[in-house]
Amino acid sequence: MKVALQVTCLGDALFPDVGKATVRLLRRLGVEVDFPEAQTCCGQPMINSGYLDEAVPAVRSFVRAFEGYDAIVTPSGSCAGAARHQHAMVARRAGDEGLADAVAVTGPRTHELSEFLVDVLGVTDVGASFPHAVTYHPTCHSLRMLGVGDRPLQLLREVRDIDLRELPGATECCGFGGTFAVKNSDTSIAMGADKARHVRDTGAQVLVAGDASCLMHVGGMLGRQRAGVRTMHLAEVLASTEGLAVEGSGAGSAPKHTEEPV
Known about the structure:
GO terms for molecular function: oxidoreductase activity. Helix 4 packs across helix 5.
């Protein structure tokens, strides 16, 4: 199987350890993964803001970068959702049959990380070890657009020595929503404060999610509150092994570990 990593804009710019963890995890499971250097933004920010015409070049770049791969794996429910559901809408609006045909290939081949592990590779035990108290936030796009369901939890339940705690109001939006956090900042802050409160109520050391954007939003609040909760992407937890776990990407006080080389 020829697999490509779509690292996402946010991962490339702010959270490179998430991409590294994804590659490390996939290689540990015997998957040869490439990183197409021609990849750019998937176009989601423009699409979500209603700028479908402006998203056309980004969608064209996406299909060019990832053509020829059997699977495209991304550590982001929102970016996977854009490729699988929104790219076709952009191509139809543009009236570009060639682009529509290309999107019909790359869209179904794009998988959020937990989907790829559970549905394509057929594994839930990835050999991870993470001896910390963890709570999981299911992000809106993974939950509602992709229908990822409990796949991330299936994976987390198999992690050695993990103390997995249920998050109250788990399916409620954290309030980030991309440009929503800018255009509706007061509402976004209120929603984020609710989510942070629920996280603190669990007593967990680590908040885990499948989208770095949500972790950035809630993690910022937890950091300002000095809550002592670290944020980590699902890929980082699943890439952790006994004696070699990944340091979290957000502020907090969960134990730090050395990082296994890619």
